Amino acid sequence: MKKVAIMTDSNSGITQKQGEEMGITVLPMPFMINEETFFEDISLTQEGFYEKLETGAEISTSQPSPDSVMDLWRGLLKEYEEVVHIPMSSGLSGSCQTALMLSEEEEFAGKVYVVNNQRISVTQRQSVLDAIRLSEEGKTGKEIKEILEGDKFNSSIYIMLDTLYYLKKGGRITPAAAALGTLLKLKPVLQIQGEKLDAFAKARTKNQGKSIMMTAIENDIKSRFGGLAEEGQEPGVRLQIAYTKDLEAARLLKEELAEKFPGYEIHMDPLSLSIACHIGPGALAIAVTKKL
Amino acid sequence: MAVNTIDAKMLSHMFLAGAKNLEVKKEYINELNVFPVPDGDTGTNMTLTIMSAAKEVAALGDTPDLKQLAKAISSGSLRGARGNSGVILSQLFRGFSKVIGEQEMLDIETLSKAMEKAVESAYKAVMKPKEGTILTVAKGISQKAKELENTDDLDSFMEAVIAYGEEVLAKTPEMLPVLKQAGVVDSGGQGLIEVLKGCLMAYRGEEIDLSFDVEATSKAVNVDSLAADTAHIKFGYCTEFIIMLSKTFNIKHEMDFKAFLESIGDSIVVVADDDIVKVHVHTNDPGLAIQRALKYGALSNMKIDNMRLEHQEKLFKEEEKKQAAVKEEPPKDTGFISVSIGEGLNEILTDLGVDVIIEGGQTMNPSTEDILSAIEQVNAKNVFIFPNNKNIILAANQAQSLVEDKNVIVIPTKNIPQGITAIINYVPDLSAEENEQNMLAEICNVKTGQVTYAVRDTVIDEKTIRENDIMGIGDHGILAVGKDIAETTIEMVEEMIGDDEVELISIYYGQDVKEEEAKKVGAEIEKLYSECDVELQFGGQPIYYYVISAE
């Protein structure tokens, strides 16, 4: 019997296909669109999602049902001794909390470890990669959970929105975001760090927003993640880019980021739909994670 | 008979005369402005600056010493300074005052030293001193004074120095091509010469009407200035008493007595009863009133108050109250002050988080004092100021240098769009220094253009302009001239953007533009720059039909 199974949800940006290749399990997140349930990457594609979002459909996210989670665990435990489950940030969804509770059931206690390390999208994906490596190194489920949770503050994400419209529509607007100013069209820059998704800064144009994000990333590297790499030195962080809908804009951002941070590894993914439905199309995100 | 020294009383008289002469020539100086915009107001700015000092000087009364006088001139002009020429003028006075404040009496040598110090101080205040301006004229005057330091006739010294200043002034068009093209001399330099001419007239004892045009200054002075307000009190002592009549006091006596009181004061009340007369008068010499009254009988219930002190106390109390109100809450980390005019623009800036708007702009340059008062109102550790006009930046810098209890950061924004961009780019998580750097970098990426009309014929940037023509003025000069507002605006935008890539064009239309007209202009621009976002907003600013930015 194999030792540790790694599992995550579709918020990690890892598709079913990629999951298979990586040898992990990806739990699809459910969406309610006009009162019909869809599953990310199963019955709902990225294109299909944006088409519905932009035609004004009522879209809401929901948690995976406890049954669907437990069924997956039960299946995995037939082949593996332990399961490490890395769900989306507990700050953004209750699904982590639910999973933690379920993992304490007698059936799963000591076998299923739910990692509460507050990651989402590209940074959640990086946690999955770290977990795979740690299990290959022979770490136990409990050890992997502890290592990942000990590292939880070592990442941040900045997201520039094309518009405040979806954030307001979803009612997810925090006092800081509401204070962004409403008379001029602004591109707010939000930050996800730890539990909160909140207003960080604002810009008038995409280029201003990008430069704000890059400066913020640079400051994080300098002040929190051990400084910028000297020439020829291995960087201590990984960079990530995520986007909603606009792949071209993301590619351009990747080029610009590579120019500003030469020698850094940059991974790029579409932003998971549970975030996208709150911020709308045309958003760009830059993330940084400290190497574990 | 030549007296070759100047004492405090004479200098005070000369200073007031200088201020008066500048005020008289104000309009003429305004017209020397290179850009024929409706609000080119070097003369107004310099006059308001010197008036602020003149009020403090007048408040000293007839017998100041040089130390008091120096302080009044220096602090009054420093706080009242507005506009670039005003700030430079105030710095000239400040340097000058430093030297004269230490003297008992002024002679040619001390005057020359004071002028030297004045020039030194003014050059220091300007980051990149430009020749062909008031600075050059002042420097020329000081050099001439130095050359004549060992002469012994004060009158001819002053005459020669001023004459040389005029010579330098006449050469300013050779130093600054914009002046030459517009066919004018430097307006600030002209202002300085007018001040000095007024001084010389007073020294020579020529008759000068020292009644100032209060109207011109009152609208600008909206801040409590202690000295300035007490200066309005003409008669200092409120004097009241009752005469217990020892002889008849008929209607003729009453008329005589009133006439006498009128000759020494105002606010006169004389009420005669059968055997007493109640008297109330504001005068500078209560003794005279009392002496005269004693002719009619013994006095009782005497009460004399110094109204100047009272008034100051009241103002002090109000000031304390204001400060107490501000200080009750703990200061927030960062506050913002913006100069702006126009309902729409003010609203946009407030929406973006500006704490205090100083009403003003090209039309009305706020003074250092106005900016200081705004800083006082913002209860924050760090205060960013957006002057939004290049003629206000120096006054803001001057205010910044006078504040000690807050970290004041002046972002040298030259127009409203730059100010808007600066505040938008503020990031709460960064330090004030980092924000300053970011804002400075971002405001360079904003191009702007403003549309107004010409107030006279001229030639600028090789463009011939007729009175009432519509002009589109960019960051570095005239971009378009025409007869039609919409056409000129679009031409200006095309010139402004050229081949550069822009993402966003913002149009703020003024109070004299109808919404439909503005929408048409917006649609036209959208057509021309289809790859770009175009945002049309009501600015409500006077005089400028459109303020447009591209970034």
Short note summarizing the structure:
The complex is a heterodimer of chains A (292) and B (551). Chain A is built from eleven helices and 13 strands. Chain A has 292 residues and is of the alpha/beta class.
Provide an overview of this structure.
The complex is a heterodimer of chains A (292) and B (551). Chain A contains 11 helices and 13 strands. Chain A has 292 residues and is an alpha/beta fold. In chain A, the strands form 3 sheets. In chain A, strands 10-9-8-13-11-12 form a 6-stranded mixed β-sheet, with helices on both faces. In chain A, strands 2-1-6-7 form a 4-stranded parallel β-sheet, with helices on both faces. A 3-stranded antiparallel β-sheet of chain A has the order 4-3-5, with no helix packed on it. In chain A, helix 5 crosses helix 6. Chain B is α/β, with parallel strands linked by helices and 551 residues long. Chain B contains 22 helices and 16 strands. In chain B, strand 14, helix 22 (515-528) and strand 15 form a beta-alpha-beta unit. Chain B is globular and about 95 Å long. The chains are: A alpha/beta (292), B alpha/beta (551). Chains A and B meet through strand 10 and helix 9 of A and helix 16, helix 19, helix 20 and strand 15 of B.
Topology (elements, then pairings):
The complex is a heterodimer of chains A (292) and B (551).
Chain A: E1 2-9, H1 16-22, E2 25-27, E3 30-33, E4 36-39, H2 46-54, E5 59-61, H3 66-79, E6 80-86, H4 95-103, E7 112-114, H5 121-136, H6 141-150, E8 155-160, H7 165-169, H8 175-178, E9 187-193, E10 196-203, H9 206-223, E11 237-243, H10 247-260, E12 266-270, H11 273-279, E13 284-290
Parallel strand pairs in A: 1-2, 1-6, 6-7, 11-12
Antiparallel strand pairs in A: 3-4, 3-5, 8-9, 8-13, 9-10, 11-13
Helix pairs in contact in A: 5-6
Chain B: H1 8-24, H2 26-30, H3 42-59, H4 66-80, H5 83-100, H6 108-125, H7 134-147, H8 154-175, H9 177-182, H10 187-203, H11 214-218, H12 226-231, E1 237-245, H13 251-264, E2 265-272, E3 276-283, H14 286-294, E4 297-306, H15 307-327, E5 332-340, H16 343-351, E6 356-359, H17 368-377, E7 380-386, H18 393-402, E8 407-410, H19 416-424, H20 432-443, E9 447-453, E10 458-460, E11 463-465, E12 470-474, E13 477-482, H21 485-497, E14 504-509, H22 515-528, E15 533-538, E16 546-550
Parallel strand pairs in B: 5-6, 5-7, 7-8, 14-15
Antiparallel strand pairs in B: 1-3, 1-4, 2-3, 9-12, 9-16, 10-11, 12-13, 14-16
Helix pairs in contact in B: 1-3, 1-10, 3-4, 3-5, 4-5, 5-6, 5-18, 6-7, 7-8, 7-10, 8-10, 13-14, 17-18, 19-20, 21-22
